[in-house]
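From the shared-data thread, chain only:
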Amino acid sequence: VEPHKEFFWDDTGLNGVRLLCDNRGQATSSEGPHGTWRQPGSCPARQWLVAFRLRVEALRRLWDNTAANAVAAICLGGSVLGDCRGPQGTWSLPCPPRAGVCGLRTHLEQPQRSGDDTGLNYLELYCCT
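Structure, as tokens:
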């Protein structure tokens, strides 16, 4: 996540998502060039991610647009991980019973040079049994 900058600087908000998979590796989205990784959250023992939502800034026309700013996820037992402050989108449909998040797909806007950069614009999580 790139932190908000004051005045007329170009902010990008969310620049990547990484899933850490129970000591069996990780799945990482495309990563934008801005920001730093936040401290990871984790579900309680024997639980897994089952749904998510994004905080997405509304289109600001002539002002600096950032698109996605934060992601929150929910664990099987109801624990919420991630940034839930501010207006959020609705929760995704949950994974089916006995399934959990096992992969992701994102859309990342390429740097616009002199245009308005937005970073991550789309997130889709996949469920597996």
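The chain has one domain: 18-128.
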